[in-house]
Structure formats: C-alpha cells, structure tokens
Design brief:
single chain, mainly beta, Thrombin, subunit H, seven-stranded antiparallel beta sheet, six-stranded antiparallel beta barrel, 6% helix
Length: 368
Amino acid sequence: MKSVDSGLNTHIGLTTTSLATCWKIKRTDGVILTATDHDVDIPFDLVDDGEGDGELIYKSDTGFNRSALEGTADFKVGNMELLGLIESTTITKADIRSERYDFAQVWIFQVNWKDTSQNELKLQTGYLGQISILDDIFVAEFRDLLQLFLNEIGDIVTEECRVDLFDIKCKVTETPNDWLATTAYAITSAQAAEVGDYVKSTVAGDSNRIFRCTVGGTSHSAEPTWNLTIGGSTVETGGVTWETLQANRVTATVDVVTERATFTITTSPATDAPDLHFREGTAIFTSGPNSTLVKRGVIKDWDLGTRTITLARPMPDNITSGETLLISAGCDKSDERCAAYFNIFNFRGFPHVPGQNKIVEVPIRPTG
C-alpha cells in the first residue's frame, strides 16, 4: 500500500484536481533529467528517492509522455513505455547510441502543483530497458523493480570461461605497478589460483612490455636494463628473475579512418603485438567525442601488418585522425588462451563436460 500525505489524499478525492505527473531519470553517469506533463515548471524535492539530489526543476518543455501505467497484484512486471522528443540540448541521439541511458533509474510520481508541500504520490520506480529511435522520437521501455526478481543469479556451465579478462574473478592484471627497488616479489603458486607479481618498466620506451616474476626474491637497489625480447629473461642482482611479455594495454593514436568501426593506429614505441593479442580486446577513446562513452568498444579484429583495428560495432560518433585511445588485450575465453596468460587456475569454463548429445547416445554393437 502506498503512503500518501493526508492533504494530498484529500485532494485526490476531489472532483477536480490539480495533479501533475513528474518524471526523474538518473543516468548511470549521474546526469539527471526531469520532466512534467504540466504546462509550467514545477520545483520539487523528491526526498524519498534516497538519492539526496535536493530540489530539482521538473521541466514542462522536455516533451515526455507515457503509455498507460499497467500494474497487477500478482507480481507481474509493470508494463509501460516512455516516449519523448529528441532535442539538441537535452536528449540527443548520440547519448542514446552511446548507451548513456541504459539501466538509468526512473522515478514516476504525481504532485499537487498548487501545493507541493503535500509531497508526492508514488506511481512507479524502476529502470529504463530497451530504447529505440524513430525519426526524432525515442521510445524507452520502463521496467519496474519487480524485474529484478526475474534476473537469474548464479553460474552456468559453459565450455568457455564465464568471466571477462581483467575483472576481479579473472585476476589477470591489465596494467601492473611500476618496478620498485628493494622490494620482495613472488611467483605464481603452482597449486593455487593467486596470480604472481607483474611489473612494468619506469622507462617510457619500454611501455610495450610487462614483466612476470619467474624466480622470487628481492629486487636490486637500481632498476635493471630490461630484456625487451618477448620470452626473454632479466635477472636482477637481488635474485629476482623476470620474463618479458607483451603489454596488456598500450596507448595509441588514430592514423587513417576508414569508417566508425575501422581505422589504423600508431603507437610510440611501435607495437609488435600479434593479431591474436588485441582480438576480442577493448578500445577506450581518451580524446574526441567518443571519449565520454560509458562502455568500451570491443575489438573484433587486430591486424599488426596494417596496424588496423576493426571494432565489433561502429562508435557512436565519428572518429578523426589524431584522436588518442587505449587498447587492451583480449581473450577468446578458451582454456588455451587462459594458459597463455599464466592463469589457468582461474579458468572458469568446462571444456571437458559432455554436451547434450551425450544424453541421447545409444550403445553401438561392435562389428566383426
């Protein structure tokens, strides 16, 4: 049962009311949009949303509308669509394509615009789902909080690894710490899932390499001259031995743009990462209009010979020569690729579990 201020409850029972519907949308990046179906702006502090955003101006010129608000008492997910005009200064196609409105929080409520001290009548609280663009109008699915009860929680059995490279369960380090003098370094345990020590050089020209501890010990008082050959070893006076590996993240500059999903890059120093290294990796633009994206671009293919990156889908905004980006290594989530990262103890796939065909197999009489 909804709790309603006594004054507002009395007002709702009148033959003629001065109720206005308001919307508050809070994107995952913290940007807030407000709207009302009233013909003038309404200042209001939605205290009970728990966000602490203070008094906001619910704008009458944003152009929001909604379909009928459907709800039941049998725990079915509420069904509603939000419709609105795409405007150059408020809601843009670029923002929608950039997924800035994905999973945005939504509060829908009514107030007495003549006396907002009566607080609000809560209608729905939830999240934005799928958003589509029709000419200059957007249509967004609204999913109320009951949708969360339909989310499956738990792991599934798959042949490939279930986690993403570099996340907390993967444990592979994307960018190691700088090498430090007189510091104890340890190797990865052969009987445990802990990842051993990795470092990167403090020399700018060594930025395409990282180093894995293969013999533990204490580092020397001065940084060694690193062996930059992939697979090579660097032995410190203090007893630590390091194996040279490809860096998992490098800084790049856009060179020639073919389209919003295909472009060549330059790096300094020049990268020699093989095609497999950045395939299924990610790209984060650090300059240009795509630098404010919430999510990373996925690298579909990397061609070392031509220095070409092909993304799984186009970036929302045009890419221009000279823009900078960070490209990170990828993983096809196979056990072979996991072993190449020296991380097989953290592999979360089941490549040797029989598939469903095993259930329907029948014995075959041997011949002969």
